[in-house]
Structures are given as C-alpha cells and as structure tokens.
Amino acid sequence: MATIVAPHNFSALEDAEALRKAIQGWGTDEKSIVSILGHRYSYQRKQIRQAYEELYQEDLVKRLESELTGDFEKAVYRWILEPADRDAVLAHVAIKSDNKDVIVEISCIYSPEELLAVRRAYHNRYKRSLEEDVATHTTGDLRKLLVALVSTFRYGGDEINARLANSEADILHDAIKDKKLNHEEVIRILSTRSKSQLLATFNRYRDDHGSSITKHLLGESSDDFHKVLRTAIHCINDPKKYYEKVLRNAIKRVGTDEDALTRVIVTRAEKDLKDIKELYLKRNSVPLEQAVAKDTHGDYKDFLLTLLGKNE
C-alpha cells in the first residue's frame, strides 16, 4: 500500500502557479514545494508539469533542478519525473556508477509491462537501449546474466507447472552443489520463468533440500556474478523484504547512503511502502520515519517524511 496522501480533487493550474511563486525571486520556498509535490500522485504531477509549461513556457523539472541543491534536489527531481522515465534515469546512473543492484531491482521486481516501459523510456532519453549499455559496462558471465534479466518479458500470470518446478529446483540444486552457478541453464531459468513459476521452484527447492536456495547460496563466492545472482533471487522471492534490507543497510551504515534511501522511498511511496515500513518496524523495533528523521536533515528530511506519510 502507498504511503503518500494526495487529494483527489486538485487544480494543476493552481499548483503550477503556487510552484512558480515558490521558486521566483531571491529565495526559494522549499516548504511550499514539499507540501505540494509531496502530496500529489504521479498523474497529478504530470498534469502540474504540463500546466506549468503552458503557463510559463519553461520546463518545471529543469527549473527545480536549477533552484534546488543536494539530496533534496535529487529526491524532488526523481519524484517529479514520470515513473518509467525516473527508473530509466536510475538505471543510467546505476550503470555509470557500477551499482548492479538497481538494474536487478528493475528487472526482477517490476512487472513485465513496467520493465518494458522503462526500457522504452531509456531508449527515448539516451538514444541507446538499456541492454546495450548494460552489455557495454559488464563482461563474461555477469554480462550474460544481467543482459538476460533486463531483456526479459516474463509471463505475468499465476499459473504454474508443478512438474517443471520440481525439475528446475533440482537443476538449481545441482548447480549449487557442483559450484556451476554460471551454467546457462541457471541463467535461463532465472531470466525467463514467470515470478509465480520461480516462487514454486524456490518452494520446491526448500521442501526437497531442507533449506532455502538463498541460504545455500550464502556459502558461494562473493564475486559480482554471485552477488547479482543472490540479489535477483531475493528480489523475485520477496521484494518487500529485499527493500527493507536496502533501507536498513542505507541507514545503519557509517554515513547514510542517501542514494539508496531516496531510491526506495521515491520508487515505492505510491506502491507498497506502507508494507515495507511495517517490515522495517518489525525487524528493527524502530519506525522507519524515526530512523529517517535521525539520519537526515533539512528540506531533504521533510520531503522524505512527507512521502512516508508522517505528516498525516
């Protein structure tokens, strides 16, 4: 469930005028920006951008980029973009900074239609395909796995084949036992099967071999290929649990990982952030809002807390 609270009846024109007032003059009114944009759904933000451009003949996104700074600017920028375009930006930044987790998240958590939309947005924005850039910046088995993941269009339904789950659980177990996780069959299974089918396979694995596949993978190599493989399985197996761990690591590390913190809150605030918050509280005995408030400051903190629904 979403955490943001937005009005169903709103005026894009009035919001555009209020934002213009907030960013004109010598000082920017950051609180107005937070109170407006932090309480608008994606389709509403799109209408505000359109109204602003019609009124003032300039791009609201570019104007906000020029007026805001630091982590606050980055969070607002990523929030105001349309979801697929935002994820294309996140993917591009991740490729350039060698952050493979973001590529795996988009490939393994998003629905087939969402992933396809991101790939189209990436192509439109950067004039190259997402697959092309992933392949350019990786090599060997890691390239095979990541390109397969970003290129996939999985079946999105709930139907499963129990016999197939049983046989492919054995293939995965043999690959782990023989330390051949880079086998083409492992990559094929993880990159082509539907999420429902993979969950059935992972459950079959646990039932047949007495432990989850993720636990068996912990003893494997810690090179990039195996890290990505484990991340992909985590993302497919339990996305909310995965995101909770990303938030926990971002906050508990020495020096907050603002990029990871912003990414999860911005991308999940309209989807399932309420459930992720509940998991965070259960795991850490501290509300996520409290942890975020302690580790951030200023307008950036206020914006994240607004997206978390704290002010409601």
TrEMBL record:
Q: Indicate which residues the UniProt annotation says bind Ca(2+) 2.
A: 253, 255
Q: Name one GO molecular function term.
A: phosphatidylserine binding
Residues binding Ca(2+) 3 are: 295
**PROSITE patterns per record:** ANNEXIN_1 (PS00223), ANNEXIN_2 (PS51897)
What does UniProt give as GO cellular component?
cytoplasm; plasma membrane
Judging by the UniProt lineage, the source's domain of life is Eukaryota
Keywords for this entry?
Annexin, Calcium, Calcium/phospholipid-binding, Metal-binding, Repeat
Chain positions recorded as Ca(2+) 1 binding sites: 25, 27, 67, 251, 293, 296
Q: Tell me, which GO biological process terms does this entry list?
A: response to cold; response to heat; response to salt stress; response to water deprivation
SUPFAM superfamilies given for it? Annexin
Claim: Nucleotide-binding is one of the keywords in the record: no
The record's note on its domains: A pair of annexin repeats may form one binding site for calcium and phospholipid.
| Family note | Belongs to the annexin family.
PANTHER family referenced in this protein's UniProt entry, alphabetically: ANNEXIN (PTHR10502:SF204)
Q: What is this protein called?
A: Annexin
User: What species is given as this protein's source?
Assistant: Quillaja saponaria
